[in-house]
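Supplementary Text 2. Reproducibility record for the structural model of the 144-residue chain.

All settings were left at their defaults, and a single model was retained for analysis rather than an ensemble. We include the record here because the model underlies the residue-level annotations in Supplementary Table 4.
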Amino acid sequence: MLFALALFATSAVFAQLNPVKWSYESKKVADGEYDLIFTANITDGWYIYSQNLESDEGPIPTTFSWDDSPKFSLVGKTAEEGDKHEGYDEIFDMNVIKYSGRPTFTQRVKVAEPVSFSVYVEFMTCDKNRCLPPKEIEAKFNLQ
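Retained model, structure tokens:
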């Protein structure tokens, strides 16, 4: 009974803890071309991980999953920039790339006609002592 109570209490703490809040926007850069900009607002002391990690045996990388539509296409890869920390991570016992503060991820898309679609962002956040389970957010875009 005590084990079940401890497990419930731990789940309740993790459910309330939300150290990363996402915002997103689109910027028109040319006729039919837009930059989709995703910004992670990360609480001090917490990190999210790069899309580009040396191994899949460590943290969950930040990933972007796109609706499958013939009405838009990706131009290049999703760029990332911000307060980058690269090196050995004691939690995962490996080298990682992680971000703190307000990193941005930018993806250029090309559209032939007005289109609405969703992008799903999966990410994992950790501080120096613990990691939270991966989360996913949905970003909706309506490009004219």
